[in-house]
Amino acid sequence: MTVTGPGVSCVFVCHDGAGRVLLARRSAGARDEPGTWDCGAGALEFGESFETAVAREVHEEYGVRPLGIEQIGVRNVLRGDPVDSHWVAVVFAVRVEPAEVTIGEPHKFDALAWCAPHELPVPLHSQCGAALELFGAGARARRVGRPGTG
User: Less packed terminus of the chain by CB within 10 Å, N or C?
Assistant: First the structure.
């Protein structure tokens, strides 16, 4: 396979608006790191906006439509030594209705868990921690910006 440049990935941390995040355990059929817990992600398709890609991927993976989408960061992801995988990951916080979440891709995921940020399951996917850090930093910034919370 000839690599012509980095791919663009839309990474999303789904949350319930009350502090819990949604993680999925990668099944034996997952592309990489089966058995690890991860937030969601998918490739940006040609001609798509970031928000359209995120909404599509959230629905595909979790069977739910986003209630809110917020861009929270960008990461340059280089994997392997030598590098054999290169992605520009645009990271989003996505609020969803917890009662409506289901496993939409059972060939990729075999379990879901709603977690407090300080009670995460293990092992985490190698890229999940960085996305959760961006989500946590964004949540702190949002709290500081509210009247009476800073």
Answer: N
